[in-house]
Amino acid sequence: MEQETKNNLTLMNIFGGAVPEHFQEALKDVLENIEDSDCDWDATREITIKMKFKGNQERDVAWMGFQVIKKLAPLSSVLSQALISVNDDGEIEAHEIRPQRQRQLPLNQNVTPINREINADA
Questions:
Q1: What angle do CA 54, 59, 61 make, to 5 degrees?
Q2: Which residues, including other chains, have CB under 8 Å from residue 86's CB and lie 6 or more apart?
Q3: What total number of domains does the chain contain?
Q4: Is residue 114 part of a domain?
């Protein structure tokens, strides 16, 4: 049942090379999270590689396990307001109140343009 290996364990070959593979996947996720404009730019992201080893009583075999843990920035919170009312049928309705952009005119209002003459001699 015992298998001998000719290679000493390294970070690159332990667990059949899975550690670097899992790290690369976590790093990709971290970099995508940093680039995501919906996440806090200032948050600290982390990647932790956790390995556990437990030897047997004879001290000639060790059980091993590893885990790659990533900590990403959460999506930034978005705040809004809702106008809550009761309709004619007695049902509660809610409609989001979206603030108008500055200098943006409501679509349902007529606008009269202001004529201004520019005096080039001034």
A1: 60
A2: 92, 93
A3: 1
A4: no
Q: What whole-number distance in Å separates Cα of residue 97 and Cα of residue 81?
A: 5
Alpha-carbon dihedral angle through residues 32, 35, 39, 43, given to the nearest 10 degrees: 90
For residue 87, is it within any domain?
A: no
| Domain residue limits at 49 | 14-71
Give the residue carrying structure tokens 């309705």: 93
pLDDT tens figures, 15-73: 999 999 999 999 999 999 999 999 999 999 999 999 999 999 999 999 999 999 999 99
Give this prediction's pTM: 0.62
Which tens digits make up the pLDDT trace of 8-17? 999 999 999 9
* Greatest Cα-to-Cα distance within the chain, rounded to the nearest angstrom: 101
Token digits for 112?
């009269």
